Amino acid sequence: MSDGASTLSAAPQPPLVRRSFLLWALAALACALALPHFANAYVTEVATTALLYVVLCLGLNIVVGYAGLLDLGYAAFFAVGAYTTGILTSEFGFNFWLTIPVAMAAACLAGIIIGAPTLRLRSDYLAIVTLGFGEIVRIIARNLDITGGASGLVGIERPEILGFKLMQVQHFYYAFLALALLAVFVCLSVERSRMGRAWFYVRYDEDAAAGIGINRVSAKLQAYMMGAVIASVAGCLYAAKMTAISPESFTFNQSLLILLGVVLGGMGRIPGVVLGAILVALLPEVLRGAGTYRPLVTAVALLAIMLFRPNGLWPDKRG
Amino acid sequence: MTLDLVIQQLVNGLIVGSFYALIALGYSMVFGVIKLLNFAHGDIYMSGAFVGLIVFSFVGVWVGNGWLGVVCALLVSMLAVGLLGVVIERFAYRPMRNAPRLSILITALGASMVLNGSALALTGGRHFAFNTDLGFAGLDVSAVHITYTQIVLVAASILLMAGMQAFVSRTMYGKAMRAVSIDMGASRLMGIDVDRVIALTFFMGSALAAGGGVMAGAYYGSVHFFMGFIMGLKAFTAAVIGGIGSVPGAMLGGLLLGLLEAYGSSLPFVGSEWRDVFVFGALILFLVFKPTGLLGRSVVERV
Amino acid sequence: MALLEVRDLRLSFGGLKVLQDISFSVEKGAINSLIGPNGAGKTSLFNCLTGFYKPKGGSIRLGGRPITGLPPHRITALGLARTFQNIRLFKEMSVLENAMSGQHCRSRHGIVSAILHLPSQRREEDRIRAAGMRWLDFVGIAEHAHRLAGGLSYGDQRRLELARALASTPEIILLDEPAAGLNEREKLDLVHLIRRIRDETGVTVLLIEHDMGLVMQVSEKIVVFDYGQKIADGTPEAVRADPKVIEAYLGTED
User: Fold this and answer.
1) With bands split at pLDDT 50, 70 and 90, how would you rate the model's confidence at A6?
2) Chain A interface test: which of B104, B107, B109 (most A C-beta within 10 Å)
3) pTM for this prediction
4) Which of A69, A117, A296 is facing B114, going by the closest CB pair?
């Protein structure tokens, strides 16, 4: 043990992506960029859905994987985004791009209303309250006139970029790819920042984190709100792609699928979550003939992962 | 509100409330012993209703669709679903007992989804009729007709809960249960078979939920695979209102929630489609202002 | 004026009186100890001082400012850091990340500046990492910086807890049984380290300890507890000679 001589030299910040991983990431990106040129409309459509789930799962991963909070009503924030865009473009004639900041603000507000009272309590309470919140948002969407009731909204404006209108499935594929890449970049940046570490401290040992000077309620609330914002942006683009939305796209089952994506690949780790999201998007295609057995297959998958591979299919080597 | 409406909603509230109380009791007991929110509890209630319906349709051939059939269905379902609860604990929760909290919660969620998904796969999502001929004879209070069935249901729920309270406070097993809920490690050192106590808690909690399921099925005349989802949420709300972990609290919370819902949804500006929003609003208000519930004790967490 | 001043502190769980009218003070730059048999209320007192328990009555002042009833993170930010009796590291994270956690309350950049990679945020990150490394080096485990904290030896885990607490640049550090589970050699190192903390960084030290030898060796003043009450307070020599202490504590433990 050396007391005097300092060994302070080597502590550079690690790069965003490890060099060994960079090559694989670039190869995957090249495949993703080229996909619409080789694949037919059906495959592109499924791939677009997969990218949507990548964004949603990365957002939920901030809440579940980083801060260790179980959110069972995540689809509600997705709905907040979709309905904000839907209402503002179809009823008030807003430009699509202007609806995004409004949706983000609405998601933040909803996040505070649900998070602030419950995040002080045990994490189990949050799980049930978010479950109830998810149902409330769906019930509200079904019973208000402005949300179009049970049949939902139609005729949502499609976005334009510099005079170019997004119309075809390929256009939306690239739009979702851009959003997914942005989400990955945001997660990578935050994961290794001061607040990102604070989330992990809180997740691994709340008391120790508080004892070392971390405001656990504030840290959890920030994770919860950031997850909400990401889901709402995904919701905006989803509404623009579908041009019609209804409450049935934002059920408890939707929240469960997103959670399954996070857990399947490996909570808290970006490559695992991306893998899990893609698997979840493929699941309905694979199980097309299974009918009423589909929820059971999803359920067994979730339970089996938790019991036999709790760190997911692609866990972090560090444990 | 007219007096008749007040009485009518009192009856409705008490009946729904006693179902909530039965389910909330199981939630609270399991939470008390292993500090786990058993997400599958609502689905256990749903399973109880289905098992009850199956038994009822078999024995109905011999004993008819009257009280005897319902009682048979109730007892068999409580026993069978109680054992189901033990099986779930053994294979889903016990392996996770020392896992991180988040993993335990997700496992519980998975168990809930498996029960729910199995029921959907087996029934194809259809509603099943639970046809009893318990009749509509009863008492008339003012202009409100109260059937004997309603009175018996409330009385039976209260009896079951009182039995449970007596069991927890009077017997050796009840004492062991309370010991485990205070300190699992120390209880093990004192020679209590902790695994057995936990299994027993699951058995009793699940049996109560099944009892509630059979009674609700017989009362409303219909059983459906999704009936446990909202019920689970409501029962949790009832448990929180009463103070989670407290047996009398669960009863009080259940009855209060039933009354709140009955009177709340008869207010002119609320309406029944907003009933669930009303209930969750109450849940959030309670969590903000009185997270320990009406009868719960505040717990000092050890550091 | 004393750095830490406790007046008439009371705490009870249900009907059980855990602490009864405790008063003592710690001077700036001192090394003091709290001793007492198991269950005397030492750790409960620590939990009151650090904001984990809310006392029933009395006051706690840090540098003249009242801190009674504040949440733990505020108290840490005001300059009071602690370690835990049963080591509470973030085992799944690296040793360096553990040490960096102490700097959280001394830095301010949030989510948005991290996403934008602002130059000032990058500089702050550099500063946090450098501080983490400096304290790892101070306690002598800098070479393990990139290992998982859970993989360290027991003694090194104790050192890491110290580094983490020191990284919050406290005025005073509370050590809860730092010698528990250490062998004789490691205990000597610990005494040396505690002295260095005070001498090289000026941080005041208050420790709870069972090991009487270590306590007598390192402390300038000792407060003795029994059944939630203070029974003695003074220099090691005075405490050792106090008949009440001998009866309550030294008499029962060989």
Assistant:
1) very low
2) B109
3) 0.89
4) A296
